[in-house]
Backbone:
């Protein structure tokens, strides 16, 4: 159940980031990096559903978590570079933080069930 909510949130988050990136003029390489990291979160969660083992499942979740951290970095850079308004980025940043926290809980739970 929690995994499904996490997947749904990650898709909604990806859509918001894509729409946000459409509003940015120029900075194509930076926009590309933000879109790639943000959409990779959901892609890795989707892949985790088809993991070959518990370790593979955990690995996909950990990659998604790393992509969350990278997405937060790009959002911070966009704000500090005046590419995005702080308030606009804050909404997306907070959603990314929610996904990050859920991923951490999911990873810890999965590890507990494998004895790691």
Residues:
């Amino acid at each position: 159940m929690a995994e499904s909510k996490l997947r749904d949130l990650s898709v909604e988050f990806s859509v918001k980031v894509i729409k946000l990136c459409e509003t940015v003029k120029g900075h194509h390489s930076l926009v590309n990096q933000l879109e790639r990291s943000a959409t990779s979160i959901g892609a890795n969660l989707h892949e985790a559903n088809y993991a070959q083992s518990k370790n593979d499942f955990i690995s996909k979740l950990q990659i998604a978590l790393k992509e969350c951290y990278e997405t937060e970095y790009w959002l911070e850079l966009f704000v500090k570079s005046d590419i995005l308004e702080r308030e606009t980025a804050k909404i997306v940043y907070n959603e990314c933080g929610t996904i990050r926290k859920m991923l951490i809980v999911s990873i810890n739970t999965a590890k507990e069930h494998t004895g790691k």
Q: What stands out?
A: The two ends are 23 Å apart (CA to CA). The chain has a mean pLDDT of 94.
